[in-house]
Amino acid sequence: MIEGISIAEVGHFTLVLALVIAVVQSIAPMVGAARNDAALMGIAPATAIAQFLALLVSFAALTHAFVTSDFSVLNVASNSHSLKPMLYKVSGVWGNHEGSLLLWVTVLALFGALVAFFGRNLPPGLKARTLAVQALVSVGFLLFILLTSNPFERIFPAPLEGRDLNPLLQDPGLAFHPPMLYVGYVGLSISFSFAVAALIEGKVDAAWARYVRPWTLLAWAFLTGGIMLGSWWAYYELGWGGFWFWDPVENASFMPWLAATALLHSAIVVEKRDTLKSWTILLAIVGFSLSLIGTFLVRSGVLTSVHAFATDPERGVFILLLLVIAIGGSLALFAWRAPTLQGGGLFRPVSREGALVFNNLLLTTATATVFIGTLYPLFLEVTGGEKVSVGPPFYNLTFVPLMVPLLIAVGVGPLLSWKRADLWSAMSRLKIALAVVVVASGISLVFLHGDQGYAVIGLALAAWLVAASVTEFLQRAGMGRAAWSSIPGRMFGLPRSAWGTMLAHAGVGILVAGATGASLLTTEVITVMKTNDRIAVGPYSIELLGLEDVRGPNYMALRGNFIARNEGGDVVAILAPENRRYVASGQETTEASIETGAFSDLYVALGDPDGRGGITVRAYRKPFAPWLWYGSIVMVLGGFVSLSDRRLRIGAPKRSKPAAGPTGAAPAPAE
Q1: pTM value?
Q2: What residue ranges do the domains of the chain occupy?
Q3: Are 271 and 262 in contact (CB under 8 A)?
Q4: Lowest-pLDDT range, 157-171, 183-197, 583-597?
């Protein structure tokens, strides 16, 4: 309590205050930019920072309510319990509809504040319009929260105990996955705001692309990490042994990632060659629009999932209205302004630009494929048709074939020159990478005995991506032109963006190897076991030593104790999977036990008892499965290494002062 006012009420007040600030931020700077009024445009940075601080206080107040188990707040009473470990009390703040929306809008305001703080060199008009558009999005979501999803709603009398958080969400993976994911796909809002601001201003040039790229890269890196954490959680928590099921909620974050990847590459063409302007603006709009559509899917009640929080149709209608205004309005503005955005650079199909256009074509087609597969069943159900399920078989036949030529092109594209290039010359510079692919394919054929053709192709593609990325990087460092002894020094002299590109592309290759092994090379055994029974899983023997009941902080569990031995009889792992039953809700979860090595996972999960002293056991050996996470980590690392490059740091390039020259032209923006 603060002088008779509870912390929760302070949080509610600052939420309303944030709405008032957002309204001012959305109007005054926009008017100022139209009138070229420096005073009104100067309001944008101050209000952006103030809005973020108000929402930060509100979010802190909700966190305080969860940490202290203040069950007079309906949200806390519905989603927490006094016995929960502190980590899950904190993660319970965003483990529900109301709290996750508050996190959503706080991240939205965070990006506005970051632009206000770091974008000091942005043109005043562009900066004012960008922050105003960002605030307009905040206004819509703050109204949604206050009118339909108030996280500070009180309940009287307060219950003595809460209902607890969904047990599936009581996991470290889910504690860190949503915040990272939100920073990713909500972060795309700033690219959207830059795009809409540029359309209003009627100016898109190389400097604009330079402003947008670091923000998109920051969102992309967090989105990559968030998707990876969600996949990792599903892998070890749900007990089915998979890492990706093409669930509609998984797709809701994957579609913005695909669009953001295309946007990153398209913005390079705008910056370097002053072309693809309209296309790049459209990608910025589409990327955040897909984030909004994902928000609608999760919170409208049209999906039933551990991720789907809301089931109230009124909330769904409100979000749908926001979608119509935000997406429809921005696309209408694009249709009006796009004809004026003429690109100036011409290029041949075989060129760096051509490779990036090819990259964009395949990425956007893949995005459209996932979009159709995700929304078609929902559309069919809404229109009175039969319920259909679109799952892995559909995506294996449509999405995967699109990725094969894309992954091949990723290895060649960076070696092509701008404007026009010689494809044969580029391929000849990849002789070492091609040799690595041949060797990797040969080894795969030997070990797989030729029985897994698709797996051989997947591993060959993985080897190609890693080898081509490293080869291109080494050639930039002088391989083939300078003495080998000088190459390490030259490598560290390269821009950090070159390091980041190499890491990101190589990370994709490592991930492809992991996905290939985990999907196509898995050895699976599902059987009923009793104490002292043994099963063979690939080259390993797994013995059930016994079952025991254990007690956790807020759950009871049945634990299986297993010992795994290799072919020589040596112990390689002690495995202890659990089936947990949570005290407050009575819900049950599966906790797999995984022994991770450098090249494979040994995975054991418990099923249901058979009533005769045995229990169902799922055991898997998954070659290359750890590389899924290694590759994802390398990709995220690549994104942040690129961001550390002074030419791509968060913010905008410094604009050089015009200097008199022989031609009278002002110099280009400094890096």
Answers
A1: 0.91
A2: 1-170, 208-417, 429-520+628-643, 523-623
A3: no
A4: 157-171
